[in-house]
């Protein structure tokens, strides 16, 4: 018994899935941008207020390290503030600066996912991105707030190992030993 595969139909089905995932991802990014532009005041807490004030003070003092400032554990450079600082200088609006910064980091995360799955079907990075950007929990220290909203404290922390994975994969694919690559990728992850 031979199994006949209709490749044209398979491609059409994959194309529909890619379009659906792309539309879903765009909707998620629009929601992230909307919530950062128009809902920041509903979740403004002491940590976010301190982060916003710190970025404003850094810009106004033209210094990264401000004398007399009470620093926390990370100096707030491993979050959206790293891009929000120059954007605040350009816009003069701290909320807009963080919204744009968060969107840039989201786009960077999508780019890194596409780099990780380079050479594979477009379905893989799109499905991964859609899963990552699902706002399944939103609260003070919940997933959505910490990754994509206000200060996005974990977006850089999540990007670093993913970027290293993409760079490692690219480096070992240039060497040309696919079996070794997958073993190293599995160990690294």
Task: Give your account of this protein's structure.
There is one protein chain. α1 runs antiparallel to α4, α2 crosses α3 and α7 runs antiparallel to α8. 69% of the residues lie in helices and 0% in strands. It is mainly α and 189 residues long. The N terminus is likely disordered. The longest helix has 32 residues.
SSE-based structural type:
mainly alpha
**Percentage of residues in strands:** under 5%
Helix content: 55-70%
Radius of gyration: 20 Å
N/C terminus separation: 41 Å
Main sheet attributes: strand count, strand direction, barrel closure:
none
Number of strands: 0
Following the backbone from N to C, one meets helices and strands in this order, namely HHHHHHHH
| Low-confidence spans | 3-7
General form:
globular
Which whole number gives the mean pLDDT? 81
**Total DSSP helices:** 8
What would a concise description of this structure say?
By secondary structure, the protein is mostly helical. Helix content is 69%, strand content 0%.
Notable features of this structure?
mainly alpha; 189 residues; 69% helix
Please describe the topology of this protein.
Layout: H1 7-38, H2 46-61, H3 81-91, H4 94-116, H5 123-132, H6 143-148, H7 155-175, H8 178-188
Helix pairs in contact: 1-4, 1-5, 2-3, 3-4, 4-5, 4-7, 7-8
């Amino acid at each position: 018994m031979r199994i006949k595969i209709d490749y044209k139909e398979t491609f059409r089905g994959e194309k529909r899935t890619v379009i659906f995932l792309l539309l879903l991802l765009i909707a998620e990014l629009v929601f992230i941008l909307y919530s950062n532009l128009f809902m920041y005041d509903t979740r403004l807490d002491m940590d976010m207020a301190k982060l916003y004030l710190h970025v404003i003070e850094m810009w106004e003092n033209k210094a990264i390290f401000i004398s007399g400032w009470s620093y926390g554990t990370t100096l707030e450079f491993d979050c959206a503030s790293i891009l929000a600082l120059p954007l605040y200088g350009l816009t003069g609006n701290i909320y807009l600066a963080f919204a744009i910064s968060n969107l840039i980091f989201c786009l960077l995360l999508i780019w890194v996912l596409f780099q990780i799955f380079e050479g594979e079907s477009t379905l893989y990075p799109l499905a991964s991105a859609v899963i990552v950007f699902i706002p399944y929990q939103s609260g003070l220290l919940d997933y959505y707030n910490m990754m994509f909203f206000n200060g996005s404290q974990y977006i850089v922390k999540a990007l670093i190992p993913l970027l290293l994975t993409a760079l490692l994969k690219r480096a070992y694919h240039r060497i040309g030993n696919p079996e070794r690559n997958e073993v190293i990728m599995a160990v690294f992850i």
